[in-house]
Amino acid sequence: MSIRRRIVAGWAVLCLAGLAATSVLEAGPPAGTPSSPGSEPTPTDTYTVDCRELADDIAQARAEAERERREALDPSAAPRRPSATLRTMVVPRECADEFEDSGLMTR
Questions:
Q1: Region Disordered: what ranges (predicted)?
Q2: Is residue 55 classed exposed, middle or buried when 0-12, 13-18 and 19+ CB atoms within 10 A define those classes?
Q3: Residue 76 and residue 96 in contact, taking contact as beta carbons nearer than 8 Å
Q4: Which residues are within 8 A (CB) of 89 and not within 5 positions of it... i.e. 6 or more apart?
């Protein structure tokens, strides 16, 4: 068998193994099998979210970033290297009204 055929055969085996593993993972546990104790929390778990606190934290972070930007643009300030920070935050949908009220988000 030539090298090319071996490479193609190896690639095909890996693809088939990946497809088989994907189908097994997507199938999930059988209906009669109890879930393992280390599984993810169920959607029925409850949690509380303080939307006002999240909105305040984001507003404070934005204000601080704006202050740093203005300081960096000030000609009388000592030259310094600008810092860039990107922060991503996921908030629950229940907080959408609070974020709109505080001007942090528009729908």
A1: 25-47, 61-89
A2: buried
A3: no
A4: 54, 58
CA 104 to chain centre: 19
Q: 50: helix, coil or strand?
A: coil
The tokens of 46 are what?
């409850």
pLDDT in tens, the chain (107 residues): 688 888 889 999 988 888 888 888 887 666 655 555 555 555 555 566 788 888 888 888 888 888 888 887 777 766 666 566 677 777 778 888 888 888 877 65
> What's the CA gap between 94 and 58, in Å, rounded?
16
For residue 4 the two structure tokens come to 């090319």
Could you tell me if 62 and 69 are in contact, meaning their C-beta atoms sit under 8 angstroms apart? no
